[in-house]
Structure formats: structure tokens, C-alpha cells
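Protocol step 6 of 9: fold each sequence in the batch and record its C-alpha cells directly after the sequence line. For illustration, a two-sequence batch is reproduced in full.

Sequence one:
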Amino acid sequence: MILIVDDFAPTRYLQSRILREKGYKVDEADSAAKALEVADKREPKLVLCDVHLPDTNGYALCRTLRTKYPRVQIIMTSATYTDEAARLSAMYAGAAEFISEPIPPERLVEIVKRYLH
């Protein structure tokens, strides 16, 4: 299962739709609290996590997920924070990769395939 964590509904919808059309099982969360709730019910194999969340930042969520689920692949994303400092913060938090948004559909599918197969 892929978990998409983003407080911006259009981004979640678009990424979910693209991945579902490719046959992936996808769940969504609009906050870190919701993401942890979903992850506790259905441990994700991959998390696409936005840096900006309403209840904490994506880096903190990444660290928590990394501790609870050491095998999960976490891809941090952001449309706002796109500099080298953001990328390094994502890596220090335990993310496998940092990607600036918007993510073209073919790139999104390529990334998911790389980390799930």
C-alpha cells in the first residue's frame, strides 16, 4: 500500500488517481496524525509525504514513520521548500528521496516502481 500524505487535496487526488490507474493500492492522509492512524491500520510499503502539514512538518512525520516502520520507503515532496537545505533535511529525517512538486505523472510512476520493485 502507498500512503500519500499532503494537506493539499488536489495534489493527493491527482497522485492517488495516477497510481490507482497503474494498479497500486493507495491510501491518503491530510495530516501527520491521520497518516499515523492509517499506517497503524495498514502498514504502508511507500509513503509520499509533503514537507508542509497542518499539525507538524513532514520531517518529524518521516522520523516517526522511520522509527515505527523501519522498512517503509519514504519520499518527501514539496512545492514550497525546494532548495538544498530542504533536500538535506529530508535525508537526515530518513527519507529515501526528496522531490520537488509538481511531479509529472510519468516521473511519479517511475519513482514508485523504483522503490516498490
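Sequence two, same batch, same settings:
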Amino acid sequence: MKKYWFRPKCFGYGFCPISWEGWFATLVLVGFVFLSAHVRLDFFTSEVEVKDGFSFLCDILIFSIIFTLVFRDKVRGGLQWRWSCEKK
């Protein structure tokens, strides 16, 4: 039996963590986002100045695409657009 780390969202395209592995992967993604915010925007200092906001947004887009591609096989029921929650 294959262990799934994520469940699909009820509406739209995406997934939510349901196991500790899924939560860990999500926390790693959030860590990369904070690291990018620190490097690109100097976000964690007292004087926040936007050095390169476009690069930060590109980082977020790249992280999201990589995260989705790597973990799409760990989503219960597959990753697809959904219009409603599944009835079980």
C-alpha cells in the first residue's frame, strides 16, 4: 500500500499535508521562502528595504513549481483541478 503525504484540496488545484512527512516537506518549503525573503528583501532586519522584489516573486514561483512536481505522486487521488469535495 502506498502511503500518501497529502490530500487534494476540495476546490481548485493544490494539496494539504496529512502525514508527518507532508508537514515536514511543507515546513522545508516555508523555510526556503523565509530564506529567500532574508536574502532578496533583507526582511529580518529592522529596516526593511525591497532590494529585488521581482527576484523574490520568481523564487516563490520556482519553489512552488518544484514542490508541486516533486510531491505530486504523494497526493491521494492524484493532483487535478477539483470543483467539489469527494463524497465517501
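Proceed to step 7 once all outputs are recorded. Observation for sequence two: Helices lie at 20-41, 53-71.
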